[in-house]
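> forwarded from #structure-qc
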């Protein structure tokens, strides 16, 4: 038997219920074998319980009563019996990574990409509590923590790649992979994949001009909408991303000035993120608690606008210098 609390039902209440259920089953002639009472499978702040009853046979009984040792479920002393070493895996493994060949131009631009990521890191650390609180209104409250874990890993990977002689594309791809690996959560996967797409589009040869910037922003945006399948109005980061990408590509092709276009696009993203407050979420973890979410802006859209706002001056400063020189 498993008497499982769904999230907001207290242990005391579970035990009160158990004292009603167990005697009824015993009175009906059943033997209760190692029953479980606790929060084993929860769903945000859903109230109530699930009660699972399984009839054991000769095959199932020894399995059910065996020791188990997993992060989510423990019974008995399995780890000591099997001699499993309780150490964290070493993800890096000390291997040296070979980066694609890069020109001196691209390696110089890579330094601006690292500076851009560092400024995002500063902004996200500052906003961690705010983003967490926003996500806690209708989600699981981990957006601030997740973004900080992601950007910390991305910055470390980017610096390491730059020190290893990588160009801008490889630096951003390495940052994206580390972000996706360490952040956890929906937003981590999307940011990681988006950054990798941005890097792949830039490549490791040139300092991007207006056309290359436009293509990279489009690649970032396409990768995120391709993976997440969210549309405008679903109340996700896409509500800030599409206005950013649309404004940037339009302005950069009309005016040929990435710095100006980025500033305008970041403004568009910021007001679009604020405007998500009035929406009901149609995608992601906030959807089941949609009513609670109305009145609070989407955390993913908010963090995206913040990041793009602070990264822009670093990414586009080089272009201005290059334009001034040429
Ligand atoms: P999780 O939802 O897994 O806890 P986070 O809390 O880090 O991850 O991120 C939540 C944000 O992810 C939401 O505010 C929303 O902007 C974004 N999001 C969720 N689902 C999608 C999706 N399908 N496409 C784009 N963005 C999404
Ligand atoms: Mg969350």
């Amino acid at each position: 038997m498993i008497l499982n609390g769904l999230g907001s039902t207290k242990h005391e209440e579970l035990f009160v219920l158990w004292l009603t259920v167990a005697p009824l089953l015993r009175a009906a002639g059943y033997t209760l074998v190692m029953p479980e009472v606790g929060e084993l499978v929860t769903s945000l702040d859903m109230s109530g319980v699930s009660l699972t009853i399984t009839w054991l046979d000769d095959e199932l009984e020894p399995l059910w009563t065996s020791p188990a040792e997993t992060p989510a479920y423990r019974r008995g002393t399995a780890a000591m019996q099997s001699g499993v070493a309780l150490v964290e895996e070493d993800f890096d493994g000390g291997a040296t990574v070979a980066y694609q060949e890069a020109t001196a131009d691209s390696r110089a631009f890579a330094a601006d990409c690292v500076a851009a990521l560092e400024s995002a890191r500063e902004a996200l650390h500052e906003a961690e509590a705010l983003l967490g609180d926003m996500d806690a209104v209708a989600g699981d409250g981990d957006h601030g923590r997740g973004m900080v874990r992601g950007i910390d890993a991305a910055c470390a990977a980017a610096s390491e790649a730059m020190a290893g002689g990588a160009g801008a594309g490889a630096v951003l791809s390495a940052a994206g992979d580390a972000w996706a690996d360490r952040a956890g959560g929906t937003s981590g996967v999307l940011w990681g994949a988006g950054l990798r797409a941005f890097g792949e589009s830039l490549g490791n040869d040139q300092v991007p001009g207006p056309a290359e910037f436009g293509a990279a922003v489009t690649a970032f945006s396409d990768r995120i909408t391709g993976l997440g399948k969210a549309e405008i109005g679903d109340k996700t980061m896409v509500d800030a991303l599409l206005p950013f990408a649309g404004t940037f590509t339009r302005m950069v092709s009309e005016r040929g000035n990435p710095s100006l276009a980025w500033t305008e696009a970041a403004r568009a993203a910021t007001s679009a993120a604020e405007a998500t407050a009035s929406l009901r979420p149609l995608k992601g973890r906030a959807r089941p608690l949609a009513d609670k979410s109305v009145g609070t802006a989407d955390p993913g859209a908010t963090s995206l606008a913040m990041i793009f706002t602070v990264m822009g001056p670093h990414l586009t400063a080089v272009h201005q210098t290059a334009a001034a020189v040429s």
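QC bot note: The pocket of adenosine-5'-diphosphate (ligand 1) is lined by residues 135, 139-140, 142-143, 146, 185-187, 190, 228-230, 236-238, 283-285, 298-301 (CB under 6 Å). Residues 82-91 have pLDDT under 50 and may be disordered.
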